[in-house]
Amino acid sequence: MMVDLDPSGQVTQREPDRANRQFLNYAFFKLDPAFRRLPRDEQADIKAEFLAAAEGWLDQSAEKGLIQRTYSLTGVRGDVDFMLWRIAFDVRDFQDAQARLNRTRLMGYLTQPYNYVSMNKRSQYVNRVEGSGHGLEILPGQGQFLFIYPFIKTRAWYDLTPHSRQGMMDEHIFASTPFKGVRINTSYSYGIDDQEFVVSFDSDHPQEFVDLVHRLRYTEASMYTLRDVPMFTCVKKALPDLLNDLA
Which residues pair with 27 in a beta bridge? Predict the structure, then answer.
């Protein structure tokens, strides 16, 4: 596939794409320490109620294609304790998931410092590379770790010629090629959340991800990054174990 010379679609007047796509929701939660002062039996009962509500959402997964992965950030960050990664074809399913949690007693002790919404779509930059960018459905949670950050490009990036942008992304992709143990999930938030992208990386090897990010700092495309924080290191963990980390 050649370089897309009309990324805005204004010249060719491309029709809107209404194909069904996956929405992604990265929901981060922080526990109020007051919960830890409750009697142990009461804590256990409240956690069991929350677990049933979170897992009950997945009862519709066969018909709706719902996916949920759970991660602990206890001891890794001070402002969040755990994260639920939800994927659905209808953004309203995220409202259903949250409503189920909101009716539990544990939500009375939880805040949500961060909550990102994005959409999966084919990248205009990697379609030309064999074996890259062809899948339109995310297969999440392959690694023991998930590294996440919201991402915004500078306005100057969009003023570059299509060939300039493609050349920088080719360099970016080439620099990433040796890091086979890191799987990227890029999703798009234009118009539906504050950031432009949410980028997440599945891996079993944190050291490989650190070296990948370090290497990408030396690519030309990195000069056009406006914001790529906060960054979250999430440890994949079953929800019962994750809740036991809290108290």
Answer: 84, 115
